[in-house]
Design goal:
Number of helices of chain B: 2
Helix content of chain A: under 10%
Structural class of chain A: mainly beta
Largest sheet of chain A: 8 strands, antiparallel
Mean pLDDT of chain B: 81
Low-confidence stretches of chain A: 132-141
Structural class of chain B: alpha+beta
Number of strands of chain A: 10
Order of helices and strands of chain A: EEEEHEHEEEEE
Number of helices of chain A: 2
Strand order of the largest sheet of chain B: 1-2-3
Oligomer: heterodimer
Largest interface: A-B, 60 and 44 residues
Helix content of chain B: 25-40%
Radius of gyration of chain A: 14 Å
Distance between the termini of chain A: 35 Å
Radius of gyration of chain B: 22 Å
């Protein structure tokens, strides 16, 4: 069955800072892809997929301000509350790419989300999709650092 | 690209009104202090890249393209225990938090 949940992005997304509320759709026929659709601008939509689908060892860091945005309390969100999604781009004249530089991190408990730019990483914002990819959104494979 | 060597404490001036001073440096990182008029936007490169990537990602995608990619990703499920993708190695989960 298709699922759909609403997430608040308190800081918006880079280039879309005023878009704060998104619906995360998971159409069964498009699994493992998900659709992040703006609640304010229904024509605005991002295609994404769990990081674990593309790269089981994918690691990301949240800075303290991002942890605070994702949490409703003073304590940092627990890793099991979080899911990491990678935004995909479909160039008109080329193969799809993955933005590993700026993953979406969602908190399933608070329904808050951030797009976390990994400034200390070597991840690319236009990484080619691998020829061999896993669909199995194996839970908990992506890592965070505390 | 213009390349200039500077030591901590030294600065460069751009256009007579923007000062970029090296405050400190170590093996991995340089700390810069920037003085500029308020109308000059100063952003980390990564922020611009993320914004540019989001603008491209927001472009409409046809349903056929989505279905094809979804099918390819489902078909490419590796055997358990095998790496799923050939991405380059990156920073580990113990990397220091970025200085923002």
């Amino acid at each position: 069955m298709d699922s759909c949940e609403v997430y608040e992005f308190p800081a918006g997304l880079p280039a879309f800072e005023t878009e704060r509320s998104f619906r995360l759709e998971a159409p069964q026929e498009l699994a493992p892809l998900r659709l992040l659709v703006s609640q304010q601008s229904p024509g605005l939509r991002f295609v994404c997929t769990p990081a674990s689908v593309l790269m089981p060892g994918y690691a990301y860091c949240l800075d303290p301000s991002e942890s605070e945005l994702l949490s409703e309390s003073a304590s940092a969100p627990r890793p099991e509350e979080l899911e990491c999604l990678i935004v995909l781009t479909f160039p008109c004249d080329g193969a799809p790419t993955a933005n590993l530089l700026a993953p979406l991190v969602l908190n399933h408990e608070t329904h808050k989300g951030v797009q976390s730019i990994q400034v200390a990483s070597e991840y690319s914002h236009v990484h080619p999709l691998p020829r061999v990819a896993s669909t199995g959104p194996a839970e908990g494979e992506e890592q965070t650092c505390s | 690209m213009l390349v200039i060597r500077r030591k901590p404490g030294e600065a460069i001036i751009i256009n007579g009104c923007i000062e970029i001073r090296v405050l400190s440096s170590n093996e991995n990182r340089v700390q810069l202090g920037i003085k500029a008029p308020t109308e000059v936007a100063i952003l980390r490169e990564e922020v611009l890249l993320a914004a540019e990537s989001n603008r491209m990602a927001a472009a409409p995608v046809g349903p056929d393209r989505l279905s094809t990619l979804a099918r390819e990703l489902r078909a490419a499920r590796p055997a358990p225990g095998l790496p799923a993708a050939e991405f380059p190695p990156n920073f580990s989960s113990t990397s220091p938090l970025p200085d923002r």
